[in-house]
């Protein structure tokens, strides 16, 4: 079942944000995340807040979901205004899940239209939806494009049938290429998501998946190492010895292969798990997270971040719909991290991106450890950015493999 929500302070029924939030949000870009919690089948590795039809029970419906989440967007606009947060156009919008394209394309278009009415879209705003290649058609993709979607992120995961079987992925592998081409023909930007390190996946299996993904010539490729979370089907299979445990050395070897093959094909890494053909092909929405910008998360279990205040919605779609129908905030709890927590979070996020970690943002004790990280081949000076030529640190390939260790070194206070 999906993971539990974090602890926090109770959120008020009117959704009003704490005093000081508005001032801290000034000057930040603003994004929207819309969570679609529905899946046709629960994948064995998945720990996301998603539900199949038989898990939903009463009180929640895919049919009415677009109307429900649209109500939250209207509530969000009012809440931000009443909290004194300056209205900003949306720089990015991202529909994730779950499988957003299990809903009719017209429903996704309706939600996007509501977001436009509430906030508007900034010029050249990026609007993305995740998609299972079996849950879209050229016709539905055209509806999305005409509604204002600019980008489709396809869940490919692997091109090898026995690997997909372990992951409980049910899409037809050949459909990925067909739908990628259909999206490209419509002028949509395309990303494909891959997972490496699945039990039973050989290095040659992984090479096959990379070669297949590259043959589609997408604009963007994400490659994530498999993480097995407690409570998932795959975790239980490992516990029973039905599949072998994960191997960190295997993950490292596969990451190095991915980086080499993607670089040779003209893709550049811009975040530890993400590569793009050009800077314009990067996921601006994900960069908004890594840069610590503001976003509103709509839907059950969705998390928001406004001016340093974090809050998250109730998890189950039935509880979420009950709150929305009652005209009260769907937020379950919230928190405003203290200075140390914000510093650690900033380290964890910014060190992962290729634009680097600003030296000016490091505390004195962390700066003293930089020389050792450079000597160990984990970081290197990056290009100076900005009008003032701000100096930055960038992870090396070795550092990307050991990014968590780099953060621990810099955050040891």
Commentary on this structure:
The chain has 413 residues and is an alpha/beta fold. The chain folds into two domains: 9-290, Alpha-Beta Horseshoe (pyruvate-formate lyase- activating enzyme); 338-413, Arc Repressor Mutant, subunit A (Orthogonal Bundle). The chain has 16 helices and 16 strands. The chain has a nine-stranded mixed β-sheet, sandwiched between helices. The two termini are 36 Å apart.
Write a brief structural summary:
This is Heme chaperone HemW. With 413 residues, the protein is of the alpha/beta class.
Class from helix and strand fractions: alpha/beta
The number of helices is 16
Cα radius of gyration in angstroms: 21 Å
Distance between the termini: 36 Å
* Quaternary organisation: single chain
Named at the architecture level, the CATH assignment of the largest domain is Alpha-Beta Horseshoe
Fold-level CATH name of the largest domain: pyruvate-formate lyase- activating enzyme
Pick out the low-confidence regions.
Answer: none
Shape: globular
Helix content: 25-40%
Largest sheet: 9 strands, mixed
Mean pLDDT: 91
Domain Radical SAM core: 24-268
Function: Probably acts as a heme chaperone, transferring heme to an unknown acceptor. Binds one molecule of heme per monomer, possibly covalently. Binds 1 [4Fe-4S] cluster. The cluster is coordinated with 3 cysteines and an exchangeable S-adenosyl-L-methionine.
GO cellular component, one term: cytoplasm
Subcellular location: Cytoplasm
